[in-house]
Design a protein that fits this description.
This protein is mostly loops and 79 residues long. Helix content is 9%, strand content 8%. It has one domain. The protein is globular, with a radius of gyration of 14 Å.
Length: 79
């Protein structure tokens, strides 16, 4: 990662959005900024990372993290 994750929260399941989520902080402002996208570099870093599938997921997943398009499987939000 481009920065040391700090203050990690416990992972929780968001029933409304049918996804797992957690929060964390970073040391430096705009560490993930790429152009106008506040988390663009983080998306670049996470694109196509292998993940374990075939557990209890509802959606059919490719086995790779996808950050955009129809097969998006990981989202980032700046809080």
């Amino acid at each position: 990662m481009r920065s040391q994750p700090l203050d990690l929260s416990s992972t929780t399941f968001n029933v409304e959005n049918n996804c797992w989520e957690f929060t964390y902080s970073v040391e430096f402002e705009n560490i993930y900024k790429k152009g106008a996208d506040e988390v663009g570099l983080l998306k670049d870093d996470m694109r196509q990372i292998p993940m374990i599938v075939g557990l209890d997921e509802v959606e059919k997943l490719s086995g790779l993290l996808e950050v955009s398009g129809d097969q998006t499987s990981i989202w980032f939000e700046l809080i």
